[in-house]
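Reading a protein record of the kind used here takes little practice once its layout is understood. The reader may check this reading against the record printed directly beneath this paragraph.
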Amino acid sequence: MLKSMTSILVLFLLSACTSKEEKALTQVYEKNKTYHHKLQKTEKVQLKDNGITKVVLTGTYLYKPSKKKIDNRDEVFIIGMYAEDNEEQSFTQDGFSLTLEGKAAKEIKLLPKDDPALKNISFVSDWSQFYLVHFPHTSKKSFRLIFKSDRYGNGILHFAKVAKYVLHKDSIF
C-alpha cells in the first residue's frame, strides 16, 4: 500500500513539473512564433574565393498562404548581403544579378537598418545591407533564387511555398 501511494505521489510530482516546463516552452515559442516561421523560410549561401568567404547572401521568403484559389501575388523576399569589398555591396551595381527562375526582380528597395521588417528576420547584422525584393509571381511550389557575381561566381538559394519535405517522394523511414 505504501509503495503504491509513494509511486502515485512521485508520478504526480513529475507530471506537475513537466507541465510547468512545457507551459514555459510553449510561451517562449508563442512569443517568437513569427521569428521561427520566417526562419523556416530562410536560406543562406556563401561565395568564396580561394576558400575565403567574399560574399554572404541570406534570403527570407515572405510568403503567406492564401485561401484564394487564384493567387497572383508577387514573390517577395528580404535579401541580406554582406560583401567583403564594401563598395560593391549592392545588387544594382554592375557585376551582380539576382534572378528567380531566370526572371529579374521587378523592384529592389534598400531597407534602413532600423526597418521594422528586419525585426523578426534571422541573420541580421550591422555589416550587411538588406533589400526588399519583389519578383513576378511563379506558380511553381519550389524555385531557385540565383545570385550571380562576375567576380565570385554563383550562389543558389532554394525556396518552397510548402514545407520542403512535402516535395520529396522519398520515405523518411
Notes: The chain is about 25% helix and 35% strand.
